[in-house]
Amino acid sequence: MQFWLIQTLNSLALGGLLFLLSSGFSLIFGLQRIPNLAHGALFMLGAYIGTSLLAREVDFWLAAPLAGVLVGLLGVALERLVLRRLAGNEQGQVLVTLGVAFIIADLCLLVWTGDPIPVPAPEGLRRPVFLFGFAFPTYRLVVLGIAVAAAIGLFLLMERTRLGAMIRAGVDDPEMARGVGIRVSGLFTTVFCLGVALAGTAGVLGGPILSAYPGLDADMLPLALVVVILGGVGSLLGAFVGSFVVSSIYNFGTALFPDLAYVILFLPMVLALVFKPEGLFGRVRA
Amino acid sequence: MERRTVLKGLAGAAAALAAPAVHAQPAPIRVGMLTVKTGPLASGGIQMENGLRIFLNDRGMRLAGRPVVLTVSDTGGVPAQARTKTQELVERERCQVLIGPLAAFEALAIDDYIRQAGVPIISSSAAAEDLTQRQPNPWFVRPVGTSAQCMHPFAEYAAKDLGYRRMSTIADDFAYGHEQCAGFQRSFEDNGGRIVQKLWPPLAVPDYGTYISQLKTNADGAFIGFAGSNGFRFVRQFNEYGLKGRLPLLGGMTAVDESILQQMGNDAIGIVSTNWYSAEIDNPANRRFVEQMRREHRQDPGYYSAGAHISGAVLEAALEAVDGRIEDKEAFMRALRTGRVEETVRGPIRFDQYGQSIGNVYIRRVERKDGRLVNSVIKVYPEVSQFWTYDPQEFLRNPVYSRNWPPARHLEN
Question: Which positions, given as ranges, span the membrane (chain A) (predicted)?
Answer without folding.
Answer: 12-30, 61-82, 94-114, 134-158, 186-209, 221-244, 256-275
